[in-house]
Design goal:
Elements (H helix, E strand, L loop, with lengths): L1 H7 L3 H8 L3 H11 L29 E6 L3 E6 L1
Antiparallel strand pairs: 1-2
């Protein structure tokens, strides 16, 4: 969405109004992910090794946990 906004030539407010997105939500997410369209990178596949040196194997097979910067942790089970 941030890229589409930059490419639209519209102000962020006009883009949000046209897309039906609350401007505050757009701004909050933009600040959270700190996306700069000119610095955006192409998404790539990152292999998750089954074991990492120094990691604890406290999760059961089929369970995954991903800790992200800012204290965000994603957990899922198969």
């Amino acid at each position: 969405m941030f890229e589409a906004c930059a490419e639209s030539g519209l102000s962020a407010l006009a883009f949000c109004q046209r897309a039906g997105i609350p401007r505050t939500t757009f701004t909050r997410w933009q600040q959270r992910v700190k996306v700069v369209p000119s610095q955006a990178q192409t998404a790539a596949f990152v292999e998750l090794p089954l074991s990492v040196a120094g990691s604890s194997a406290s999760l059961a097979p089929g369970e995954f946990e991903l800790s992200l910067p800012g204290g965000v942790t994603l957990r899922w089970k198969r």
